[in-house]
Amino acid sequence: MCRGKNASPTPLVSVSYSVNAPNYGGIYRSLNPLIFLREIYRVQETDYIRTKAELATLLDLEPLLDVPVRQLSLGQRMRFDLAATLLHAPSVLFLDEPTIGLDAVSKLAVGDFIKRLNQERGVTVILTTHDMDDIEALCTRMMVIGHGRILSDGNLEDLRARVTTKRRI
Q1: Looking at the domain assignment, is residue 92 inside a domain?
Q2: Cα–Cα distances in Å, from 52 out to 8, 73, 129?
Q3: Are 90 and 159 within one domain?
Q4: Whole-prediction pTM value?
Q5: Is residue 71 included in any domain, yes or no?
Q6: Among the ranges 32-36, 39-43, 88-92, which has the highest mean pLDDT value?
Q7: Could you give the percent of the chain with pLDDT greater than 90?
Q8: What are phi and psi of 117, to 5 degrees?
Q9: How many beta carbons lie within 10 A of that of residue 69, not counting itself?
Q10: Domain span including residue 152
Q11: Are residues 82 and 115 in the same domain?
């Protein structure tokens, strides 16, 4: 509803947001949240089956689909969170610290997946992170925000050129 009127059932832009370290109640099987999200996003059953299978393969989730969430490692939960955010094929994806706390292998796998998602499917990924490795590996444009203001907007080389290597006391 918007100002008392029904909004269009077809959004102009499909958006998804992921926070880090998801915990879907702990007791559910890993697959249950995906079924729940299918209903929320009104994903057709055939699209759901195809997308779930594709994401399970790409994110190596197949052996984990029936594992209780509380038994998943942080890296496994992060991969399920990515699958959940992509279930309805958003064109814009907001990711908040998607690799925080991951081991090196999981971090590289998630980073590669995010990069492929952008390059192959054209998904716009907006990433919030403090991890310079993520920024260098994934970002073509970056913004530095401080106290609610944009302090820098450009590529990493532009920022490096603007920042001095000297420290002031």
Answers
A1: yes
A2: 26, 20, 27
A3: no
A4: 0.70
A5: yes
A6: 88-92
A7: 9
A8: -60, -45
A9: 21
A10: 132-163
A11: yes
Residue 72 falls within a domain, yes or no? yes
Phi, psi of 92 (to 5 degrees): -130, 130
Bridging pattern class, strands 149-154 and 142-146: antiparallel
- The dihedral region occupied by 60, where left means phi > 0, alpha psi between -120 and 50, and beta the remainder, is left
Paired with 143 in beta bridges are 153
Give me the residue label for tokens 């203001």: 149
| Domain-embedded: residue 112 | yes
The pLDDT confidence band at residue 4, using thresholds 50, 70 and 90, is: very low
pLDDT confidence of residue 62: 87
* Helix/strand/coil percentages in the chain, nearest 5: 45, 15, 40
pLDDT at residue number 168: 66
Cβ burial 104-126 (10 Å sphere, 16+ → b, else e): eebbebbbebbeebbeeeebeee
Number of domains in the chain: 2
